[in-house]
Amino acid sequence: MGLPTKKFECPCCGYFTLSEQPPGTFEICPVCYWEDDSVQYNDPNYEGGANKVSLNKARENFINLGAIGKEYVAQVRPPLDEEKRANQ
User: Fold this and answer.
1) Distance separating alpha carbons of residues 43 and 47, to the nearest angstrom
2) Looking at residues 20-38, what average pLDDT do you find?
3) CB 3.0-4.6 Å disulfide test: which of 13, 18, 55, 70 passes with 44?
4) H or E stretch covering 72
5) For residue 51, what are the β-bridge partners?
């Protein structure tokens, strides 16, 4: 077995799913489906760029829907134990 790979926190859901340090990796989080975008990271109310919704709206949608938008609910998965936030 190899050593565990360090993961970085998704700016949307807060789970440690990204393999590179945000912002601007353009990785898609498998837990919420947020695509890491430096423009939206720096302006969380900006709609457009890599994601249709703003980062703030995506965070709200994740709490209510389990994904950044209802069209992505079928494409996400629950977080793995090693991806969970420190306060869980």
Assistant:
1) 9
2) 97
3) 55
4) none
5) 48
